[in-house]
């Protein structure tokens, strides 16, 4: 391996993110794996995350529910009970033992849910009362009243405090992919007539209230947010995504948060790349903190994004899922394991989870030294 930075590829150069000293720019994107039985994080997650941890590498944990109304998928983790906090601790410790920096993605699905996931079989909550399709999967949501919104803001605040108690270095507020915050941001969903609807400023109000509450609870230097202004997942399009992204980037500056993590416009749908004339550059320029990009990145265009100062960090989802030692493989330009979609979300604690092989390292080779 090269010893000086001059010989290093842009992705493998150090970066100072607030108080965190990162040794490289390759970030583990948040990846839902549905192996947290009964919403409780499991011991196998300690192995999974520690496999992907490097000294000075940033990992973002999978989407983690902020309350008992936040769930919409089987066996996704929570962080609203004492039991959840205790269960996260050894997982966070395992990452820290490797020198990794670990953020928890805090999440509420909103209407991407059904009665079966909700306490007492009640309706999921949202900005709207319009149901997602298909009806067999998603129940019609209850439109949050203006008065009910502070309670949900408070759930995020408490979840952020719990994450810090569990030992996480910070939180990433999940404002992307058609989930609750995005259901307020996007004009294709938000049909409200109160102070949380109608105008761009009003649509951004609830997500910004969440940011403010979390910042007040744990400090701006431990808060990031994920946004996908261009994406259409879960029927979440917007008529002017660039204006939305820019307005959010500028508003976030007022809170001085650590990072903004944006999904590339080419990722309109999960896991599919589209040609697009759009770019995140205006948002990158507007936002004053660390800018993380994600979506369809390879080693080559990740290097280019860093070299061109298009982003500070690049997050990798599927490649990191399948390559626990992805930063090392990028550094060495080694071949990558292919990912297997079939096992992304199966509940097995091993298969498709902790069994992706590491590159044969030089120490493995030296087990069979040449005899002199
Ligand atoms: C199995 C899987 C689970 C995902 N779970 C989450 C999640 O919990 N939170 C989130 O914000 N994005 C999630 N995503 C999106 C990824 O973080 C990432 O943005 C996406 O995979 C595009 O990056 P990639 O092309 O490097 O995979 C998930 C993607 C996959 C494939």
From TrEMBL:
One of its GO terms (molecular function) is FMN binding. The keyword Phosphoprotein does not apply. Keywords: Flavoprotein, FMN, NADP, Oxidoreductase. Residues 11-335 form the NADH:flavin oxidoreductase/NADH oxidase N-terminal domain. The keyword Transmembrane helix does not apply. Belongs to the NADH:flavin oxidoreductase/NADH oxidase family. This is NADH:flavin oxidoreductase/NADH oxidase N-terminal domain-containing protein. It comes from Aquilegia coerulea (Rocky mountain columbine).
